[in-house]
Design brief:
The chain has 238 residues and is α/β, with parallel strands linked by helices. It has two domains: 38 residues; 158 residues, Beta-carbonic Anhydrase, Chain A, CATH 3.40.1050.10. It contains nine helices and five strands; from the N terminus they run H-H-E-H-E-H-E-H-H-H-H-H-E-E. Strand 4 and strand 5 form a beta hairpin. The termini are far apart. The protein binds zinc ion (ZN). The site of zinc ion (ZN) has 7 residues, from helix 5. The site of zinc ion has 7 residues, from helix 5. Keywords: Lyase, Metal-binding, Zinc. It is an enzyme of class 4 (lyase). Its EC number is 4.2.1.1.
Length: 238
């Protein structure tokens, strides 16, 4: 039996082994969706007609996959207002085609004005990177945060309170990821052509819901240093 033809002769995956509790939580999502859609139409009969016409968000949010930090809720924005990319511990890796594709589309097609790296205190990914434990394949992803730890080990290893140590690395990680974004050819080329693009670093405090702006915003490449700042022209490599 394959997953397009089950015992009942119907198309779809065989879900017979699923418990009542499991299907209840799943069905609740569908019910919530239909309630949500009905409420939106009640508030504004044209809501979905307008939404279906297209998007013009001014913000790209690069946040953690953690279920407690949804971009729209945290910023009080509606569907259509924030373009979103999330991964474990909001890491921006210059060879990650997923992140680069989102960034390029947001900056060059949607023309967002703000790119925000949003971490959060108590981040499990950051906490894991501070330990020597193995967690599986994710260890290779967390290596990027270990690299940030290595850069700031002098400061971090002086912090004796474990929570405080994690939270400081959360801030340093966001700052480093802002720097990583600014180093990309995508951001640097955009800055050569426009003056209305800023990259910011935020940390969300889960205990208050409030955002801390780390004050690391950048709107030009001048602080990148000579190693990373590109010239204003492309040279074909051969
Ligand atoms: Zn996290």
């Amino acid at each position: 039996m394959n997953n397009t033809e089950n015992k009942n002769g119907k198309n779809g995956i065989d879900t017979k082994g699923i418990s009542l509790a499991q299907s209840a939580s799943y069905n609740k999502l569908k019910q919530n969706n239909s309630d949500w859609a009905a409420k939106r139409v009640q508030e504004d009969p044209e809501f979905f007609t307008k939404l279906a016409q297209g998007q013009s968000p001014e913000v790209l949010w690069i946040g953690c996959s953690d279920s407690r930090v949804p971009a729209n809720e945290v910023t009080g924005t509606k569907p259509g207002e924030v373009f979103v990319h999330r991964n474990i511990a909001n890491v921006c890796v210059h060879s990650d085609m997923n992140m680069l594709s989102v960034l390029d589309y947001a900056v060059n097609v949607l023309k967002v004005k703000h790119v925000i790296v949003a971490g959060h205190y108590g981040c499990g990914g950051v906490a894991a990177a501070l330990t020597s434990k193995q967690f599986g394949i994710i260890d290779n992803w967390l290596r990027h945060i270990k690299d940030v730890y290595r850069l700031h080990a002098n400061e971090l290893d002086r912090i004796t309170d474990e929570k405080a140590k994690v939270n400081r690395l959360v801030e340093l990680n966001v700052t480093e990821q802002v720097y990583n974004l600014c180093k990309t050819s995508i951001i640097q080329n955009a800055w050569m052509n426009r003056t209305d693009l800023e990259v910011h670093g935020w940390v969300i405090d889960l205990s208050s819901g409030l955002i801390k702006d780390l004050g690391v915003s950048a709107s030009n490449p001048h602080k990148l240093g000579y190693v990373y700042e590109f010239d204003n022209e492309t040279v074909a490599a051969n």
